[in-house]
Design goal:
Length: 222
């Protein structure tokens, strides 16, 4: 399963990328707006940090033509291993196959139902992004929806992958991992919660104390 970081905060991306084998970074208009800086400048800085790992950036246009124009601008100015995020609106579905025909990689986003995901997969998108926590907020069915989407893609032999998004806790991450989605995108807080545990820190401290009690203050075994 691939781990992506769901943020446009440069400091957080640098910190996480220095430690974890991230598959890339995802952004959306809300995440970008939190940084209060130029859209393309932020994306270029992210690209410089993550190199050719995946960068998912969302269009703002609402009509099919506007979506295509936004996607072309992103492709031209950012390029590389770029995934154009397109919400599954009526115009979004229309734009998806057109973007694929232009050779772009596409992530269908703002997905709340298995039906939306299967339709987007039929439009030829590379990833579908169901919003787990937002689904949980209205129905508690977030994990079930992700499970249904992964099952549907397998049953119908769709090459589209599932990039589960919108997480508020590690339990949701554990549950969708078991559901078999191919990728998740999580905020820095969730990533560090997944990685760290106070008992791990206590265990390491205990190892060091026990070692030093016998072998002295030397820090390494060599
Ligand atoms: C993914 O890229 C989504 O835009 C994002 O995960 C939504 O998360 P939120 O529900 O925490 O805003």
């Amino acid at each position: 399963m691939l781990y992506l970081l769901d943020t446009a905060n440069i400091g957080e991306i640098e910190k996480a990328a220095a430690v974890f084998p991230l598959a890339g970074v995802t952004t959306n208009p809300t995440i970008i707006a939190q940084e209060k800086r130029d859209f393309f400048a932020i994306l270029k800085e992210i690209r410089a940090i993550i190199g050719e790992k995946m960068l998912h950036a969302q269009v703002l246009g609402e009509t099919c033509d506007e979506i295509i124009r936004d996607a072309e601008a992103l492709q031209e100015k950012i390029g590389g291993n770029l995934y154009i995020k397109v919400p599954v609106s009526t115009e979004g579905y229309k734009a998806m196959p057109r973007l694929k025909a232009r050779g772009m990689k596409v992530t269908a986003t703002a997905i709340y139902t298995p039906g939306q995901a299967l339709l987007a997969a039929n439009c030829g998108v590379d990833f579908t992004a169901p919003y787990l926590n937002r689904i949980d907020n209205i129905s508690g069915m977030g994990v079930t929806v992700v499970q249904m989407i992964t099952d549907l893609f397998r049953i119908h032999s769709m090459p589209t992958r599932v990039l589960a998004a919108s997480f508020k806790n590690v339990q949701q991450v554990n549950d969708v991992s078991l559901a078999g989605c191919q990728a998740i995108t999580i905020g820095p807080d969730i990533l560090w919660h997944l990685a760290e545990h106070p008992l791990t820190d206590m265990s390491i401290e205990q190892f060091n104390r026990d070692w030093r009690a016998v072998y002295g203050p030397g820090k390494c075994v060599y």
